[in-house]
Specification:
- The complex is a heterodimer.
- Chain A is α+β, with helices and mostly antiparallel strands.
- Chain A has twelve helices and 20 strands.
- The longest helix of chain A has 18 residues, at 312-329.
- The relative contact order of chain A is 0.15.
- Chain B has one domain (3-240): Rossmann fold (3-Layer(aba) Sandwich).
- Chain B has a seven-stranded parallel beta sheet with strand order 3-2-1-4-5-6-7, sandwiched between helices.
- Chain B is globular and about 55 Å long.
- The longest helix of chain B has 29 residues, at 100-128.
């Protein structure tokens, strides 16, 4: 992926790209600027139409790693996959990781990412011991939960707008090795999902469910629930196979029919019902990382991901409403994830995770019909008092954003005057 | 553990090579121009497993300091087993056509300083009867082209020099490796759309480390540059002079 394109491959903008290779150098005299890490956010939080992108992948140096305490300090362009390669042999693992290990540390901070262990570990920000924030004024702030605590709260989940995150320090978690043991089981309804989530949250580090978004009628809400824990197991890691999606097909093969067929097969495959499963961490935590550039699957127009969180009291009613809408539209895709968040309050002013159920799914970009469907989903999310995840978004209205993130006004005081993003201009323009 | 001197240690290829050395626990002596950057790289290499990562700030044009550099490296690492010479600039061809001053400076950096270092290292390794000198030249040195013949001819000098040095030192048990990379994507080219000919610094570094282990003589990296350059060298001058390469 060239620098300057986000994971959803839409929208596409002209931007000036300034590669950074030395975190001790002052920021370039440009504006408006925005850091761009590894391009794994889906929409326009990492884009800056008509402005400058500071490409941070050249800031990929480790600073310190203490194998006794599990404290790691590194530059912001280091990827979680690179951290794992360094620290797993010493028995340490990122405390929180999203569904791809190919995100940069700076991106993980700026989006305050979460993972399959949110119910236990909270978000990435909960494990941050500190970071360096470089402001366009030339000021360098060392932020931590105790030092410049207000800047810490603004920058965690702050979408890269408070300045350049140059380096970060975090507490890793102990693991016995690369293996994860657990089970997977089919569920026939959302109620069964909620029951499984409640049962599993105390005993399992990771819980997540795949949902069949094409199912309707009495199959509505069916899916596969997976859970697991890091375990001690002596076996050589499986052979690495990585494929690259070689071309962008002119028309996306993701259609209503192919999705229904895939989902039917996926739901019924033997792997969906395993009493004792043992996974290497890669296929369990990062099932898509072995297919490079899989986002090309959605064709030249790219795709949207919609990820919302619905508060506990509202989810049971709002979720089926959403699923009926999606199934009727026949626009959904295979990649549908359902996860029960825990109750640990997020630290960032603009952090997305909050108690409730989060639903994430892809939609091929079919233009106005897709945008209309997503707006209808937003209507449900707004009514339920939920929120949509900025890191995944390319289209939510200013009105929606401002309702989902009421702290945005307070956050504005912390934005670096030389920093901006396409996302921020979109969701704060007065309607 | 091997003790390796790396000159031009802040270059993308050298840094990627140093990470591979570090991951096997080698002791490294890093020479470069930018102090803060050099320091950041040294810290990183220590985290990645380097037994030592010493730094030495030097501009390649300060050739009078080269003896001190080699002596320093030898002392601080407790001896030297190999050297990777990776410094250089990508000359501005058009500017060099207008300025003899600039032309000479480019040659100082890309050719003379490299040969000077090789000469000092050769003296040391020759008396010890062992050692590896790996030098980054370029495919551009295989034939002068109108678009970058100043850079190309400096690299051609390096290629010819290391070829002779290799012959001279072979009976003494010292190996000289000439490395010819093609197009390498660096942070500076991150925004370009790249064709199939572009390689990452990590890929080039893997080739370099393997060649140093195998005590090879000349490598093209990636490998396909060898047949490509064979073709380019084979074009008769009567034809070549009409091309716009």
């Amino acid at each position: 992926m060239p620098v300057g394109t986000s994971w959803g491959r839409w929208p596409r903008y002209e931007q000036r790209i300034v590669p950074l290779t030395n975190r001790f150098e002052p920021l370039p005299l440009a504006g408006p600027m925005l850091a761009f890490g590894n391009g794994r956010s889906y929409g326009d939080v990492c884009l800056n139409e008509g402005g400058t992108l500071l490409a941070t992948r050249g800031l990929d140096r480790f600073i310190r790693f203490d194998a006794a305490s599990g404290i790691l300090e590194c530059e912001a362009g280091v990827l979680l996959s690179e951290i794992i390669a360094l620290t797993l042999p010493h028995g340490w693992f990122p405390p929180v990781t999203p569904g791809t290990a190919l995100v940069s540390v700076g991106g993980a901070v700026a989006n305050d990412v979460h993972g399959k262990n949110h119910h236990r570990a909270g978000t990435f920000g909960h494990h941050l011991l500190g970071f360096e924030l470089q402001r366009s004024s030339g000021e360098l702030l060392h932020c931590s939960p105790n030092q410049h605590a207000d800047w810490f709260r603004a920058t965690v989940g702050g979408l890269g707008l408070t300045g350049l995150i140059g380096a970060a320090r975090m507490q890793l978690r102990r693991v016995p090795g690369p293996w994860i043991a657990g089970d997977s089981q089919r569920f026939g309804s959302l109620q069964e999902f909620f029951d499984l989530a409640v049962q599993s949250d105390t005993d399992y580090e990771y819980t997540v469910a795949w949902l069949d978004c094409a199912a309707s009628g009495d199959k509505l809400g069916r899916g596969v629930f997976m859970r697991g824990n890091h375990v001690q197991h002596d076996a050589p890691p499986p052979r690495e196979r990585s494929l690259r999606f070689p071309v962008t097909p002119p028309i996306s093969p993701v259609t209503g029919l192919s999705v229904r067929l895939f989902n039917e097969l996926y739901f019924h495959r033997p792997g969906s019902q395993q009493k004792h499963a043992l996974w290497h961490y890669k296929p369990f935590l990062y099932p898509l990382d072995s297919v490079l550039e899989w986002n090309r699957l959605y064709g030249p127009r790219g795709f949207f991901q919609y990820q919302c969180v619905l508060p506990p009291g509202e989810a049971a009613a709002a979720l089926p409403e959403m699923l009926r809408l999606i199934a009727r539209s026949r626009q959904g895709s295979f990649l549908v994830v359902l996860k029960q968040f825990g109750n640990l309050p997020s630290l960032g002013l603009l952090s997305f995770p909050r108690p409730g159920v989060t639903l994430a799914l892809d939609f091929p970009n079919r233009g106005p019909p897709t945008l209309q469907l997503l707006e209808m989903l937003d209507t449900i999310t707004r009514a339920a008092g939920g929120a949509v995840y900025p890191a995944k978004d390319a289209r939510m209205s200013a009105r929606s954003f401002q309702q989902y993130f009421p702290a945005w006004k307070q956050f504005e005081d912390y934005i670096d005057p030389k920093f901006s993003s396409s996302f921020w201009r979109r969701v704060t323009r007065s309607s | 553990m091997r003790r390796i001197l790396i000159v031009g240690a802040t270059s993308a290829i050298a840094e990627a090579s140093a990470r591979l050395f570090a991951s096997r626990g080698d002791a490294l002596f890093l020479v470069g121009r930018g102090e803060s950057r050099l320091q950041a790289i040294a810290e990183d290499l220590k985290v990645r497993g380097a037994a030592l990562a010493e730094t030495f700030v030097l501009d390649a044009r300060a050739m009078d300091r080269f003896p001190a550099l080699v002596q320093n490296a030898t002392q601080r690492l407790g001896g030297l087993d190999a050297a990777l010479i990776a410094h250089g600039t990508l000359s501005d061809q058009a500017a060099c056509q207008r300025s003899v001053e600039l032309l000479r400076e480019e040659f100082d950096i890309n050719a003379i300083s490299v040969m000077a270092l090789c000469t000092l290292l050769a003296q040391q390794f020759e008396t010890e009867g062992r050692g590896v000198i790996a030098v980054i030249s370029s495919v551009a040195g295989d034939r002068g082209r109108q678009s970058n013949y100043v850079y190309g001819s400096a690299k051609a000098a390096v290629t010819a020099f290391t070829s002779g040095l290799r012959q001279r030192l072979y009976p003494k048990g010292v190996r000289v490796l000439t490395i010819k990379p093609g197009f390498v994507s660096t942070p500076m080219t991150a925004a370009f759309k790249k064709g199939v000919l572009w390689a990452t610094p990590a890929k080039v570094a893997a080739d370099i480390v393997r060649a140093m282990d195998r005590r090879s003589s000349v490598i093209y990296t990636p490998w396909f540059w060898r047949p490509i350059m064979w073709v380019i060298r084979s074009v008769p001058e009567t034809v070549f002079r009409r091309l716009r390469l």
